[in-house]
Design goal:
This protein is an alpha+beta fold. Helix content is about 35%, strand content about 30%. A four-stranded antiparallel sheet has the order 2-3-1-4. The longest helix has 15 residues. The radius of gyration is 12 Å and the shape is globular. The relative contact order is 0.25.
Length: about 100
């Protein structure tokens, strides 16, 4: 499991580099979803479809061992505990810049 505890309190730009900067230029990143590297495109599209139906924009990045979704918009409707039940989701973080 990816441990992001050591990043607590750091600006989002320092966490995810250019990926975060490009997302921040489009709007405020308010949630990050870390997914397993082996997540298929179909699994990603299914989850992304549900999030987009909730009115969120999504940025995607692939890291070493993980895929990252950056959610932009009002995430108050997103249930973090429900997301964590998804078999491909490793971690969910609300981001405060």
């Amino acid at each position: 499991m990816l441990n992001l505890d050591r990043y607590s309190g750091k600006p989002i730009r320092s966490l995810f580099g250019g990926f975060a900067v490009s997302l921040l230029e489009r709007g405020r990143v308010v949630m990050i979803i870390i997914m397993k590297e082996e997540t298929t495109n179909e699994q990603m599209q299914s989850l992304m479809g549900a999030l987009q139906e909730a009115g969120l924009e999504i940025g995607i990045a692939s890291g070493v061992g993980h895929k990252i979704l950056g959610l932009i918009g009002d995430t108050t409707c997103v249930d973090e505990e429900k997301l964590l039940l998804h078999p491909q989701v490793v971690q969910v973080m609300r981001v405060h810049e």
